[in-house]
Amino acid sequence: MGFGEYPAEYNPSVHGTYDPARYYGKPDTPFSQVKLGDLGAWFSRRKKSPQATAALISRAFWRWQHKYIQPKRSGIAGFFHITFAAMAFFYTINYKKIKAHRNYKYH
Amino acid sequence: MLSRLALRNAQLMPIMARGAQSMSSAAGDRPVRMEKPSPVRHGIIPEEWFTIFYPKTGVTGPYMFGIGLSTYLLSKEIYVLEHEYYTGVSIFIMALVVIKKLGPTVAAALDKQIDKYEGDWESSRTENMKSLEECIENEKKEQWRADGQKLLIQAKKENIVMQLEATYRERLATVYNEVKKRLDYQVNIQAVERRLAQKQMVQWIISNVLKSITPEQEKANLQQCIADLQSLAPRA
């Protein structure tokens, strides 16, 4: 799968219209239904290449888009998601400085 | 919170929540754009993040998880409540007030705009379809009219055949008349000739007879006539 190409598993005659939010590979147990003990095995089955990671993020992004941005009468939730994601992101990258503002010595 | 009732109710929850999942994209199906956004709780948190807890913890589980997690983060000061936190809290309270006050109005206005936008496209689509259907209708009518031309051509052909027939018959009549005229002419000629010949013959015979009568014969004839008259006279 090159840059800007469809996933290798995607077959228009079988899958129909391309859905960027959909995983076209062989489906594994959904993450939400994985038993805690099987988590290691489940994680070892995942592809961990940069492409796979990028595809994962892309799918998640499109799933979010389809749910909160693309609907005909979408509300304000999507904008708040962006806000909170940005807050979390900047909190993380500034975490070293923020740690200096701790109010208590002992926890 | 882990009561049996909650657990049993929670068994049914994922089925209900599945309807709230994102767009269906089964093989061969065209993805359908959602009308409403995926349901959220408290304005922003996806419904799925709550329902994922239900089979194990019941409906209060996600809240307990949230409270527990934030308690942990705050107590260990992983999340530091520095000055920016209070800025954020004030901003969000203000945002909440604005959204609650203006939200419905803005939403109604935007919905109206969306409806208008969609209506424009839809109407242009239906107008286009209607005009195309009219075109098809007209085309069919024209074809029907063209079929009428066939009938007309047939009639014209019949007309020409009739004209040909009429001309043929007229010519036949002409020929008949001409031939009859000529034959009548011949008949008349012969009649005239015969009449002339007879006349000639009669004249010739009479003149010859008259020529052959001698004066004695005439005299005798006269005497005979007188005698006949005399014999008739006393009886009168």
From TrEMBL, chain A:
Alphabetized, the UniProt keywords read:
ATP synthesis, CF(0), Hydrogen ion transport, Ion transport, Membrane, Mitochondrion, Transmembrane, Transmembrane helix, Transport
Q: Please give the Pfam families that the UniProt record associates with this protein.
A: WRW
Residue ranges annotated as transmembrane are 76-95
Chief subcellular location: mitochondrion
Q: Does the keyword ATP-binding apply?
A: no
Its GO biological process terms? proton motive force-driven mitochondrial ATP synthesis
**Which residue spans adopt a coiled-coil conformation according to this UniProt entry?**
none
**A GO cellular component annotation in the UniProt record:** mitochondrial membrane
Q: Where, per UniProt, does this protein localize? A: Mitochondrion membrane
Q: Spell out the protein name for this chain.
A: ATP synthase subunit f, mitochondrial
Could you tell me which species this protein originates from?
A: Cephus cinctus (Wheat stem sawfly)
Automatic annotation (TrEMBL), chain B:
Q: Which domain of life is it from?
A: Eukaryota
Q: Which gene encodes it?
A: LOC107269812
Task: Tell me where it mainly resides.
Answer: mitochondrion
Q: Where in the cell is it found?
A: Mitochondrion; Mitochondrion inner membrane
Name of this protein: ATP synthase subunit b
Organism of origin is: Cephus cinctus (Wheat stem sawfly)
Which SUPFAM superfamilies does this UniProt record tie to the protein? Answer: ATP synthase B chain-like (SSF161060)
Task: List keywords of the entry alphabetically.
Answer: CF(0), Hydrogen ion transport, Ion transport, Membrane, Mitochondrion, Mitochondrion inner membrane, Transport
Q: Which GO terms describe its molecular function?
A: proton-transporting ATP synthase activity, rotational mechanism
| Record family assignment | Belongs to the eukaryotic ATPase B chain family.
What is the annotated quaternary arrangement, including any partners? F-type ATPases have 2 components, CF(1) - the catalytic core - and CF(0) - the membrane proton channel. CF(1) and CF(0) have multiple subunits.
